[in-house]
Amino acid sequence: MKALMCVPNISEGTDLSVVEKVVDAVRSTPGVMLLDTSSNSDHNRSVITYIGRPEPVVEATRKLTETALALIDMACHRGSHPRQGAVDVVPFIPIRGISDEEAVSIARDFGRHVGDTLGVPIYFYEDAATRPERQSLANVRKGQYEALAEKLKDPEWAPDEGPCQFVPRSGSIQVSSRFPLVAFNINLATTNLEIAQDIAKSIRFINGGFRYVRAIALSLKEAGMVQVSMNLTHYEKTPLPMVAEAVKREAARYGVSVAGTELVGPVPLGAMGQILRYYLQAHDFSMDQIIENSLIGWTGE
Amino acid sequence: MKALMCVPNISEGTDLSVVEKVVDAVRSTPGVMLLDTSSNSDHNRSVITYIGRPEPVVEATRKLTETALALIDMACHRGSHPRQGAVDVVPFIPIRGISDEEAVSIARDFGRHVGDTLGVPIYFYEDAATRPERQSLANVRKGQYEALAEKLKDPEWAPDEGPCQFVPRSGSIQVSSRFPLVAFNINLATTNLEIAQDIAKSIRFINGGFRYVRAIALSLKEAGMVQVSMNLTHYEKTPLPMVAEAVKREAARYGVSVAGTELVGPVPLGAMGQILRYYLQAHDFSMDQIIENSLIGWTGE
């Protein structure tokens, strides 16, 4: 069974009746399974997660986009999270039986179709980016919605699809495809934030660490701990257990131990297989050995 | 989706045309997925593994039993593996959404039905045992097929179901239910078998080790290593990573390191979750976070 996940972020996290209508566009699409909806009122933003075969997932995403554009007016939007559109980001994530290349072309086809039919500027980012400087979402979204009108006048920032024209109500839609990301936090038994900051710097890509690691340091005031909070953007290429062990070793240099870790949100089965192989030294373990793996896409009829 | 696995062992591993006919009884049952068939001619025995909802799995097992009893004559059976019947063991294994108690009653119902309709003595063992001395398969099968006629005259060894009468062609069927077993081997970077033997003794139940661990030591001549070969009979109660770490520590006492490990055959997803939680110290990890978990029993229609 081929499985594609999509995790659109929409710029509405306060009026939950609007969010409900947008989520209904997913729920009402046959062949799509809604996995999660989470709204944050400070961010004024909601994240919707669903999965299914590629065609129904694309169809659900079209309906979601149409509904959100009809209901959300960016001209009135306030929120603490960076955003550039009513449907701010639409990442397509290949989970099973879909190559990275197929995922890119799903994202590009989606962007072209929505840009044309709904008349809204589209930027491709991450794996779907059409040029290197658009790979980074931070770059694409620089200046945010408020700067978009000016940006669209700059030929460097012509949209990838849709009209090269500011649509005040909708802003732009950022569409991507990417490998499934793993959100992984390591809690350290100390209140010294500097230690977590040093470790975050030593393991993250921008400062010379692992290629597919983004990391920041946080204080967990109530727990009396600090946290190295990470996004592993390609666990196959930068393995999670290797990063976990590196953090542990770095912490040990300060005499600090790991109190626990947290995997946040969805975790791909492949990452679990990797953790098993690594820690057990089970070099030949095959994912086909997992009993439940045979039940995926099978109702028992 | 409820899922039950069944792993009958039949006393034929030489004439593969017979094995094929027996396996066909499983293949031809709608709602059952054949996972594996493996035949060993020295043992003169085959192991058939399949999964599905409880009802179709029981139905497939009935058909398999009927076919095997019609085709296999124990009076002519020779093989190096202990056995007491043409259909030697029938273990039912709850994989998903089935309690241990339900599994016991599935095994007992199956034994009663087959004992009555096919007229063959049935012994229940492991979780399905009716008395403590029948829990151990080695006990139930003591003396093997060759001793069965005498054994059936002893009231202590009256069968649990079916006629108390020796059926030369079929022998007896041993029926059980049990928690899914994990076959786990640890290879040590030494040729000294005594070290593996000492470690096997220190970790296995019969010598005072972990309750749900059976272990033996083997020489891997070609690889120039020795192996601690284990069956973990209840990974939830005796966790695999705890056993792996105990073996590693014991080996270190001899200055020997772990060269690698092998998980042999099917591995339940639950055991993988446990390994992840243990090694990452991810205390709150939930199996619901696994993306593919949501696709089990769902075809995407």
Describe the structure.
The structure is a homodimer of 301-residue chains. Chain A is an alpha+beta fold. The longest helix of chain A is centred in the middle third of the chain and has 19 residues. Chains A and B meet through helix 7, strand 11 and helix 8 of A and helix 7, strand 11 and helix 8 of B.
| Share in helix of chain A | 25-40%
Spatial gap, N to C terminus of chain A: 15 Å
Biggest interface: A-B, 52 and 52 residues
Strand content of chain A: 15-25%
| Mean pLDDT rating of chain A | 97
- H/E series of chain A: EEHEEHEHEHHEEHEEHEH
Query: Radius of gyration of chain A, Cα only, in angstroms?
Result: 20 Å
Question: Which word captures the global form of chain A?
Answer: globular
Quaternary structure: homodimer
Number of strands of chain A: 11
Q: Unreliable stretches of chain A, pLDDT < 50, 5 or more residues?
A: none
Class by SSE composition of chain A: alpha+beta
Number of helices of chain A: 8
Largest sheet of chain A: 7 strands, mixed
